[in-house]
Amino acid sequence: MTQKPKPLHSIKVDGPIPAHLARSVIEETLRAAILDGRLPCGTALRQQDLADLFGVSRMPVREALRQLEAQELLSVTAHKGAVVAPLIQGDATETYELRILLETEALRQSIPLLTSADHERAAAYIEELERQHDYSEIGRLNRLFHMALYSKAPNRRLLRLVEDGLNEEERFLRFNLEAMGLGKLSQDDHRAMLQAAIAGDIEGSVKLLVNHLNRGVDVITRFLASPASQSRKTSR
Question: Can you give the pTM of this predicted structure?
Answer without folding.
Answer: 0.70
